[in-house]
Design goal:
The chain is of the alpha+beta class. The protein has one domain (16-126): Leucine Aminopeptidase, subunit E, domain 1, CATH 3.40.220.10. The chain has 4 helices and 4 strands; from the N terminus they run H-E-E-H-E-H-E-H. The chain has helices spanning 2-8, 46-65, 85-102, 117-126, and strands spanning 20-23, 31-34, 70-73, 109-112. A two-stranded antiparallel sheet has the order 1-2. Strands 3-4 form a two-stranded parallel sheet. Helix 3 links the parallel strand 3 (70-73) and strand 4 (109-112). It is globular, with a radius of gyration of 15 Å. The mean pLDDT is 93.
Length: 127
């Protein structure tokens, strides 16, 4: 991010749904993909839903482009970004499932990493 701020100015912010690949350093992973999800300020709109879909799709595309065979997703945009948990999970599961069908063998393992029991229950129903 510092390199991007040097290049584009100190006020540079990562755009929504544009992934950024970095080294994982001391984490038990090869790489880390950072992505900014949409922020729901007043109400959920189709544009925000499309932005969230693009977060998952663009991240999977980046995995394929960099020969990364597994990826773990957090609940993108839920929490302080106010995306409704159930709708976010529906978008995540649908988008990832479609991408995997359209790109067989490019990513072998996808993990939905949840922190709340509420999210765990939602994902278990969807998967």
């Amino acid at each position: 991010m510092n390199e991007l701020r040097i290049r584009f100015g100190r006020d540079y912010e990562q755009p929504t749904a544009v992934p950024m690949l970095t080294e994982a350093y001391n984490l038990p992973a090869k790489k880390v993909i950072h992505i900014v999800g949409p922020i729901v300020q007043y109400r959920l709109t189709p544009e925000l839903e499309k932005d969230l879909e693009n977060c998952y799709r663009n991240t999977l595309d980046m995995c394929a482009e960099n020969d990364l065979k597994s990826v773990a997703f957090c609940c993108i945009s839920t929490g302080v970004f106010h995306f409704p948990n159930k709708r976010a999970a529906e978008i995540a599961v649908k988008t990832v499932s479609e991408w995997l069908c359209d790109n067989p063998g490019k990513v072998e393992r996808v993990i939905f990493n949840v922190f709340k029991d509420e999210d765990k229950a939602i994902y278990e129903k969807l998967i």
